[in-house]
Design a protein that fits this description.
Blueprint (H helix, E strand, L loop, with lengths): L1 E2 L4 E3 L1 H7 L3 E4 L15 E7 L3 H9 L3 E12 L11 E5 L5 H11 L4 H4 L5 H16 L6 E7 L2 E11 L2 E9 L8 H12 L6 E7 L3 H9 L3 E12 L2
Parallel strand pairs: 3-4, 9-10
Antiparallel strand pairs: 1-2, 2-3, 4-11, 5-10, 5-11, 6-7, 7-8, 8-9
Helix pairs in contact: 3-5
């Protein structure tokens, strides 16, 4: 991200995807807001305990969209998958199109989906581009897929950060959800990376109740919550 003169930072990736001038507010605090000369959309993430700062941005016409909840879990040996119909493999280039489809059609609880100022196609395009960037070598360190009868039904995109294994994106096709496949995928990366990392970190949205309950049942603990606010300029 290109740094601006004040506490705005230019978000090149989102700007390219949305074809808008997008800025992210770094280290949000109460101060005189000096907006960039050319700006279409700005967003900010604020710790939910910083009420005065949250109210300050609301007073400046930033709209509360939802909140991001971050979970953490120690990596430990998980029970092996006993279902021989399930296959886990590293994603191949030939898998890109189906993974883009799963990403754009099954991740519907994002802040871009909630914000009515964005069209559905824009929200879907962001998730699709997320996968594209992995295959371009621009985002993520590993991409694992889960297959049933040679058919890809889900994936997990990972980022490596020192001893932290960060789940950047995870999705299971809707018709296969709530059947244990997501749990199997988490157990798989637990076992696969047990000697390389200490903890798994994952984020989800407060409005995604299924996702929140899913992580809690797997033993993840909430470590942070940030409110997400948007402001549109046209």
């Amino acid at each position: 991200m290109k740094k601006n003169k004040n506490f705005f930072k230019y978000d090149g990736w989102l700007s390219a995807v949305l074809k808008k001038k997008v800025f992210f507010i770094l280290n949000p605090r109460i101060k005189n807001i000096k907006y960039p000369k050319k700006i279409d959309f700005a967003y900010v993430k604020i710790n939910n305990k910083k009420i005065k700062i949250i109210n300050f941005f609301k007073e400046n016409k930033f709209i509360l969209i939802n909140s991001n909840i971050t979970f953490s879990k120690s990596i430990e040996m998980a029970n092996k998958n006993n279902n021989d119909k399930i296959i886990f493999i590293n994603a191949k280039k030939r898998d890109q199109k189906i993974l883009e489809y799963i990403s754009s059609n099954n991740l519907t609880e994002s802040r871009f989906s909630i914000d009515k100022n964005f069209q559905k196609r824009e929200a879907a395009l962001i998730k699709k581009n997320w996968i594209q960037n992995f295959f371009l070598g621009k985002r993520g360190d590993a991409l694992h897929v889960i297959k049933i009868k040679k058919k890809i039904i889900g994936f997990v995109l990972l980022i490596f950060k020192k001893k932290l294994l960060i789940i950047d994106l995870i999705a299971i096709r809707k018709k296969f959800q709530s059947k244990g496949y997501g749990t199997n995928l988490i157990k798989y990366i637990n076992s696969y990376y047990i000697n390389d990392f200490n903890k798994i970190i994952v984020g989800t949205q407060s409005n995604n109740f299924l996702s929140n309950n899913f992580y809690k049942k797997l033993g993840f603990k909430k470590i942070k919550e940030e409110l997400v606010l948007h402001k549109h300029f046209n």
